[in-house]
């Protein structure tokens, strides 16, 4: 495979599906038939981060994982869940009425698109697919539910998760959970996309809400982000190995056409949609955004 991408003067193997020639894709597939899918969206992440942090983080981690462990990274999907239910209440509190620059779609649109993404990988013959979301709230729990529903229809082995599930503490005393535009996410993006983080934009004495900036953002460190990224990449490699070890060529493959996806959605997913946590009206004590708030419209 030809090396065509560069980082800091180092020649790196191309693993991004949309940037590869057909012969490169075939070589990568033969070496490791794993598809990596990244999910996120554009939303406020403080004045110090590019608004695409969630997607950039997930995609950047998967590119590193594929270069380290093999596989092909699918084109990233920047349209994700927001504005509904508890997301709207959170946004009113953390963003306020500022223009949010969101790339949001309803949960049922996002998750149906995921089904089509998975179908494409199944038809191509991938043996495993890992779906990584960099966007938090309860959507990642719904992703896991969807994966559980999809798996009986697939020969390919499937796993969905948020990035923090394979994280290790990047700061003394921290747990593995993610934050929102605080020291964890800001440090990770700083490591993965250093040109898209500017910590000089963090005020010395911030007044909140500040475009959803996390309260710990000033504690961000690029070195900690590099360590977290390395831990996540290592964890993804272990997950990839586990999935490939359980692939069975004799399993039925039932999600092969657009009609199959539509049938799966109507028969299996739609009856379960009321249970999806992304559709809950609230996750907080507050019942709803205030009347007149931009966040009331889709709540």
Distance between the termini: 49 Å
Number of domains: 2
Largest β-sheet summary: 4 strands, parallel
What is the helical fraction, as a range of percent? 25-40%
What integer is the average pLDDT?
A: 94
Number of helices: 8
Fill in the CATH topology of the largest domain.
Rossmann fold
Q: What's the number of extended β-strand segments?
A: 8
Which shape, going by the Cα principal axes? globular
Task: Give an account of the 3D structure.
The protein is an alpha/beta fold. The chain folds into 2 domains: 1-30, no CATH class; 32-296, 3-Layer(aba) Sandwich (Rossmann fold), CATH 3.40.50. 38% of the residues lie in helices and 11% in strands. It is built from 8 helices and 8 strands. Strands 4-3-7-8 form a 4-stranded parallel beta sheet, sandwiched between helices. The chain has a two-stranded antiparallel sheet with strand order 1-2. A two-stranded parallel ribbon has the order 5-6. Helix 2 packs across helix 6 (183-192). The longest helix is centred in the last third of the chain and has 24 residues, at 222-245. It is globular, with a radius of gyration of 19 Å. Residues 170-176 have low confidence and may be disordered.
